[in-house]
Amino acid sequence: MLGAIIGDIAGSKYEFNNRRSKEFTLLADDCYFTDDTVCTIATMDWLLKGAKLTGNDSYAYILQSWCLKYPEPKRSYGGSFHNWFNSPNPQPYNSFGNGAAMRVSPVGVYFNNVKNILDYAEATAVVSHNHPEGIKGAQAVALAVYLAKSGNGMKEIKSKIRAAFKYNLNMTCTKLQETNMFDETCQGTVPQAIVAFLESTGFEDAIRNAISIGGDSDTIAAITGGIAEAKYGISDKLKSRALTFLPEDMKIVVELFYK
Question: CB under 8 Å to 39, separation ≥6 — which residues?
Fold first, then answer.
């Protein structure tokens, strides 16, 4: 989803230089896409090609192909995942890193029932992040996107995600601005990203919430952005601005996905 890509680009310059405030230029000229965008594009591409689980259109194959095409974005992949996509036969490595959660948002809009969303979210996670927390993080984000898309209110989304995944969603952005530390795990990142969405009043506000809490800013904002787009949509002006940061092949995938 473009919301996840916008979150990634907006948060890119703050990942290792946290901005503990909501006051900043949303898509500044010195922002850029990172591994979160590459992997989200891969998920879109996989869905467009039929969401196959085996063969040359499998998720693992398509994800690996996109990462090999863009092996060194400015904020690049984690070491274990870098080894994964450079392997001739990539295998899951029991990761619970937040990479499973940052790439899954397109699943939440593509499917229209909870079982498919949970099953296909798991399918995107297990190719690399097959630890239970990695799977859980991907499923929670995809379900939150679906619930937001389906017109659920904030209280309903919070209640359903908390009941399904037992995350603590009682923290606040204000408190996180004071205490949050860098955390690349699903169990650390996903609840924070969901809280940033739950406290929002619109798409841009959600992204500002996500970046303002510090930590792994681009990934938190990517997760928040996917959910927030499903709830609020994105203005045409912001869509146009975001697309200027992407190469042509990524733009084509985005345009086809939205069609």
Answer: 63, 66, 67, 99, 102, 103
Cβ pair 129, 214 in contact under 8 A:
no
Using alpha carbons, select from 33, 63, 32 the residue that is nearest to residue 45.
63
Q: How many angstroms separate the CA atoms of 89 and 81, rounded?
A: 13
For the whole prediction, is pTM greater than 0.90?
yes
pLDDT in tens, 98-153: 999 999 999 999 999 999 999 999 999 999 999 999 999 999 999 999 999 999 99
Contact present, 3 and 27 (Cβ < 8 Å): no
Cα distance from N-terminal residue to C-terminal residue, the chain: 12
In order, the DSSP letters of 215-247 are SSHHHHHHHHHHHHHHHH---HHHHHHHHTTS-
d(C-alpha 195, C-alpha 207), whole Å: 11
